[in-house]
Each structure stands twice: as C-alpha cells, then as structure tokens.
Amino acid sequence: MKRFFLTFLLQLLVTVPSLPQQTPTQGPDLDAPSTTQASGQPSFKALHSPLQARVTDRRFYTREAMYLANEMNQSGDPFLTGARLAGLPVDNDRDFQYITATESYWYSRYVMQTLVTESRLGLVLIHGPYVTEKAIEIGNAQYSRDRGENELSNKDVLFQHIIPSYLARTGFPRRFEDASPLMIEFASGDPHFTRPVDKGTKFEMSENLWRERQLRRLYGASYQPPPTGAGIGGNDMWQYRVNYREDFSSLRWSNDKMDHYVDLGGAGQTMMKAVLWMEYFFRQSHHEKYLGNNPEEGFRGAILNLASVSKMLLLKSNFFYDGSHLQGMNPFNYDPNRKLIYFPHEVSVVSRYIGDLPPRPEDFKVRDDRSLLFDQASLLWAFSEYFYFADPGRDRSDPVYRTAYDNWDKVFGDKTPYDGSLMERKYMQLARGLGNVVLRNLDSMHRDPQSGVLVSEWDPHRKRGSTVKVSDLNIAILGLANYHRHLAKAEPELSGRAGDLLRAQADFLVRVQNPDGTFADGYDLTTGNKLGEQVTLLAQASAIRGLLRAYQELGDPRYLESARRAYRAMNERLWDEQCGLYRSQAGASVSVYTPMNVAATLGAMREMLLATRNAEEVERYKRFWVQAVDSSGLQQAEYEETGESDLSKKDGDEDGIPRMEFGDGKHGIAPVYAGRIEIQTPVAPVTSVAVAQQTKH
C-alpha cells in the first residue's frame, strides 16, 4: 500500500481534550492530598485488591466493544459534570476525577480511534456515497471516473475539495500518513499488530517546515515548536511527534483475521459513538473563527461527520432487505403495512483491490436475514442522536451541553462549504427518515401484540419470536427514549408512539421483577417461563440501566423504585467485597466478564448514583472500575494519554496495563477491550457454625 493514500486525511488519534474539566490535572479540585505514582496519576492503592484474572479471548467484537465505549463515554466528562451538579462529594476526590475525566474518557476514545482510523476493520469512506456524489457534482460527470474522462475520481475530490475545506474551517495545520477512516465497520477482528510499532522520529523536512509555518500563523509569537517523542502533555498532545502518531501503517490489523461482514448492531453502536464525539469536539470554537475546541478536534469532528453521513447514505442505498434481495429505499415513503423492508442482522461484503487505495466494495450479500432487537435499537439510538446534533430546533435544556449548541449549529449549513459549514444540514433529515423506518419496523416486526413487549428476534421464515432478553430491552429503551426526546417536534406522532413503546418495555420490567428484586436473563412471552437458571450481572445491570433511562424520560416513580430494588439485590447477591467487583452470576467461583456486562454495569451504577445521590456508592463505583477495568485485563493496552509517556518502558505508570507495543503478541496489541475475561471470585465455604447462626436468626 503506497504511503500516498490519505496522506493528511485523519487524526482520530492524538489529542487530550481541550476543555479544562476534561483534564483533571489542571483543575483546583486536585489540590487535596492523594497517593500518586511517579507519573503523577493516582495509584488507587486503597481501591486495589489482589485479583486472579486471565484473558481468554482477545478478539475485538464491534457490537459489544462499541457499546462499552458508549457507556464509558457517558461515564467520562458527562458523569463528572453530572456528579458535581448532583452535589456528590467529588470536587476533592482525585481518584474519581481521574477515573472519569481521564481513564474512562481515554479508554473509550482509544477504542474509537483504533477501530475507525488505524485498524482497517471495515470499508473506508473514500469509496463512500458522499464522496462519490461530490465527485459527480463537482466534475459534472459524463463518463466513468475509472476511465478518467471529464470526471473527478473520489480520491481527487476528497483531497482537492473536501479535505482542504475542512482544514481551512478548523485551522488544522497537520498531515498524516496512511489514515484510513471507515464509513462502516466489520463484525470482528484480531487486534494484534502485524509489524513492529514505528517509534522513530524522522520526518520529511518539508512537512515539518510546512506545519511549523501554519502553526506560527495560527498562534503567532506564542508558538513554541513541540518536542520530538515524549515529554509533552495536556492540550498540546495533538502536536506530539513520533512516527506511529504521524503514520498509522504500523498500527494496522491483519486483514486475514477479520470477519469481512457487517454486523448492523456494531454499525449502530459505532455511529452512536461517533456522534457523541462530534458533540464533544464542537462544544467550542477556537481563535474566534475556527470550528472545534482546538484545531485537531475540529478537523477530527469534521471527518467523523463525513464518516457518519457516508454510513447513513450507504445503509439507505444498499442495506435494506425485503426478504429476497438488498436494495435502496426512500425512507419517507415507507409503509410496513404494504411491504416489510428492514436492516438484516449481518451483511457480507465482496471487495476488490484497486491500485493504491483500500479495497472497494463491489457487492453486498445477506449473511443472516434475521432482524435483531439489539441491532435495530442501536441504529435508532444513533440516528436519533445525529438528528439531535444537527437540528437547530433541538431542545436546549441539557446542562452538560447547553453552552455548545450555538457551536454545533455552525457545523451545518445550506450551502456547504461556501457558508463556512462542514456538512449540509439536509442530512439531519436522512437521519430522521432512517430512524422513522427503524421505529416503524420495531412496532410492526418486534412488538408482541398482547403484551406490547419487543421480542429479541424476528425471522423472515418463522416471523416474530416469543422471547426477549433483558439486555436487549435495555438497548431498546435507550433507543426509544432518545427518539422520543429528540424528535418530539419533528415527528410528534411517531415520537408519541416511541413513548408508548418505551412505557410498555419499562412496565414489563416492573411487572416481571422477582419479589427479591432480581430479574431473569429473559422471558418467554408465550409460556411465561423465565430464561436462565441463575441471577446474572448482565440481566440485573441491564434492567437497572433501562429502568433509570425510562424514569428520566417518562418520570414514572415506579421505574426508579424498581431500579432501586434491583440495585439492592445486585449488591446483595453478586457483590464480592474481597475481590471488589460483582460476580457474573450468583455463586460463581469463576466470573466471566465481557464488554457487554461491564458496559451495562457501568451504566447502571453511574445512573443510580446520579438518580439517588448516594455518596456511599461513589466508593463502590471507583472500586469496581479499578478492579473490573484496570486490573482484570479488560483494557489490553494503552497510549501516552493515560500514563505510558515513557516509550521505552512496558508499563511506565505501573498500573498493570502495558503500552501497546509491549502488550500481548509478537508486536503488541491495540488499546482495545478484550472479548472475554475469567476472574476468580471464590465463594467462601459454609461452615457448620455459620449454618447454625443462620438457622438461629
């Protein structure tokens, strides 16, 4: 692959957030004494317990990993801000601040930047519909672009038109080698690096001189050339110079070990993550006239926007399925009563290698024709969030983002790029239309007519299933609540229907909750049977997360009370004080952790803290994070931003998480979540004395 490709396209890699509250080492709240490591970060000594854990699956599964990335995103700066607004005692709690504003933020971001920029685990946006449309529009096409007559190629229009407009509007003076931003992601891949990570510091002099001229123009006399290698931090990290931050080719994953098909649930979760980052990156403008919190974040947000619109256009034009073949569709003309057309669970990709570009998709084929509740709800969550981000008429009451809305509005315009915008506002209507299709299909395909509950699976051969997983109901509630809130003005009738479905799911959870507060893994709506034999962490945490989101949206106190009962039961039945985390199921001597149950647990604990303002539970949250995330092997590697500033040391901050090139495998492993972990959670034997005491009481 030639280094020419996407020379300066993307930097979903290297920045520390530009807002002060996101960088806890800069705030006055950290003046309180704290046990720290040599790196200056907290040691978490009081939160650690001996833990025997081993990673049993290092593979990256997009749907699960990106759901965890989304919950970690919300457990970062939004959680810290929300905790302060709720009056929780965190202003002088350095451990809590570092866990939320640094580790949670960066672990979430590592996964996003690795997947979308470095891994090549998917289809690259240079082949996407948006760039193709621009090539036709700008070139006034008459002939095939591949033949070179009269038309710009996708590569030409990307480098000559789109990227220069992003650079000019964000003030970003930097170029990169071999960045490959994805428009849609494959289902899974092996995150091990295939070659040594390039830690050299030799660059082309012309590139360095060009960059320094641009930085001096932007910052004037205050500009100081950044150092080579480690030794820079804070909001200047994006200027950091070492080869793997300039050239992403050494961070690539093995193409032979990828699953070359799209999981629609993973596509939805990844788009949701991209929108959350865009909302953050465009909270402010810089130097009075440039979009973005700083030059890098503005440019990165522009690329994420391009990727998100490319994904929506691709889904609209190629991924709808009528039971016999894939097709495109106008979402505003869709009526499921006339003919069902939906997003299937998995779609295979047939690609062709062409010259110096990444593989180009030539054909799509349905691999799994089921409609899964997790997939549809994930897409609904993402589409409704994009609409909210782009909608100038949005509700502006969110205390976390209320100062950002005017800056968000500058991102979109009617005459892009001539009005200074980065993306045409019309694509908010695309998100709206796609969300409408998904919502109508949930109602038509997944809703059980007797109970109103959304079942986990619809099969075109066997039609609607009869079972529902509690973990799927959680994702359904997140998607329905998001649509209900963000499209209330644009789609009052459908928004009302989303509210009805939301209430039906939450009411069902209240209705099936066990007397002791626990939930089964799932339920058969036909027989009334419960699924699963043991009380599991995934089910309890998913129910709590879903009930609290329903409570936030609908205000029904029954949902809060049900969540409280479930949280008490989860703590009583599953919490292991010695290990400092929850057993994955009641009585488990070996607990199995995956990104799914960790994500649901973080979300449940976070939202319970914000809803109840119980200061005592802050300690439990911190301890669970340190044990389940930092100490278990879940986070497989890390970059400089979370402590590995010494390029020569395997674990310079001594937190047990290695630098990526010193991680598992011959050449190291990407800083992403493991697929499966086993943790020893021994159950103390019951003695005769203990039995006698229990009988007596």
Description of the molecule:
The protein is of the alpha+beta class. It has one domain. Helix content is 43%, strand content 11%. The chain has a 3-stranded antiparallel beta sheet. The protein has a 3-stranded antiparallel beta sheet with strand order 6-11-12. β21 (575-576) and β22 form a beta hairpin. α4 crosses α5 (154-170), α10 packs antiparallel against α12 (427-446) and α15 packs antiparallel against α16. The protein starts with 52 loop residues before the first strand and ends with a helix.
Short note summarizing the structure:
This protein is α+β, with helices and mostly antiparallel strands and 697 residues long. Helix content is 43%, strand content 11%. It has one domain.
Topology record:
Elements: E1 53-57, E2 60-61, H1 62-74, H2 77-85, H3 94-118, E3 122-124, H4 129-139, H5 154-170, E4 182-185, E5 188-189, H6 205-219, H7 243-246, E6 261-263, H8 264-281, E7 285-286, E8 290-291, H9 295-318, E9 320-321, E10 326-327, E11 346-354, E12 357-368, E13 371-372, H10 373-390, H11 405-411, E14 412-413, E15 423-424, H12 427-446, E16 457-459, E17 463-464, E18 467-469, H13 470-486, H14 492-512, E19 522-524, E20 530-531, H15 537-554, H16 557-574, E21 575-576, E22 581-582, E23 590-593, H17 595-612, H18 616-630, E24 676-680, H19 688-696
Parallel strand pairs: 14-15
Antiparallel strand pairs: 1-24, 2-5, 3-4, 6-11, 7-8, 9-10, 11-12, 13-16, 16-17, 18-19, 19-20, 21-22, 23-24
